[in-house]
Amino acid sequence: MDNVTIVVSGSKLEQWNSRLAMVLLPNTIMLFIYIVLGLLGNLAVIYIYKFRFRQSSDDRFFIPYLAGIDAMACVICSSANLIINFNTVLYTNAILCKSFFMLSQFSGSSSALMLTIISVQRFRRICRPFKPKMTLRNKRLSVFCALLVVFLASVPSLFTTGIAPITNTRLNVTGYVCASVEVMGSNIFPFVYNLVVLTICVGNLFVLCTLYVMIGKTIYGRIKYRKGVKTTAMFELSSSDGLNESCMRKTSTISVTKSSAILSSSHRKSCRKMKMAGNRLSIMFLVITVVYIICFLPTLIVIVWDSLDRNVWLMKSNLEIVSFRSAYSLYIINNIVNPIIYGFFDKALRKEMIAWLSKIC
């Protein structure tokens, strides 16, 4: 009798899992697309910045590192979600569950913290231009420290995550999911850890928003000031047209003055172009951060919702289940669109990318 019950129960569980896998097929297809697009885009960015740019730029230092982390996040996070989609209620491998959860948290958090480091660097460069800049050594050290801190912060998830039972009252069957579990028979440690992680995520979002608001205000103020100076200069030039004759000097003096003026004008134009390029890169990183926030917030809401009740989405309609899982993996889009944002704002990257693709094709 017991054997018959187990077979029937196992059959019901497999049917339940198969139905959920079919329901989640649209999300599964999207996850495969995430992997392909994320790898192609970010690896192309790394290649262009590392091997096709003749000289390294101070402003672009963090981009290859961010692209590498984004490529890693696309593969790891998408793969973790694919395993869940195929084994929604048949997730019985605890080692796989713990490993992928930790690696997903590490790669996703690394990308977020890298954006924070970039925002600090842009803030110092734009809002505090006369203070010492970050040296190459400090930049490399900041990347290493960020990865180390995120790794150490992700290690506890190996203990707070595992295989948890979930019961379908309609089918009268118990499945198994990869979720938060008790530690030493208590939910206190997982609750505290998840609360700390949540607080850090919200705090990171606040820091990013604050820094980029200040950067945006500074850039806007400079643009407004330049427009005012340009208008004033044009007015003064038009007003002094009638005094040209009285301002004439000897030919040699005029020649020297013109030469100096040309050099001065050329220098000013060069400086202006560099400042505009720096501002454009700051705006680029601002857009990347905004996209990150937009993509991450729905995921954050769903994670909190799921942590309160792991049964919350399994008993819903098909559309609600797909929507829930899609929101859970929405943050991966941020890692995919970054190369597109690089190409839109960075003219040098766009030029090199077109030249490279034209040679390949």
From TrEMBL:
This is Vasopressin V1a receptor. Keywords: G-protein coupled receptor, Membrane, Receptor, Transducer, Transmembrane, Transmembrane helix. PROSITE patterns: G_PROTEIN_RECEP_F1_2. It is a multi-pass membrane protein. It comes from the Eukaryota. The keyword Nucleotidyltransferase does not apply. It is found in: Membrane. The chain crosses the membrane at residues 29-49, 61-84, 99-120, 141-166, 191-215, 281-305, 325-345. One of its GO terms (molecular function) is G protein-coupled receptor activity. Residues 41-342 form the G-protein coupled receptors family 1 profile domain.
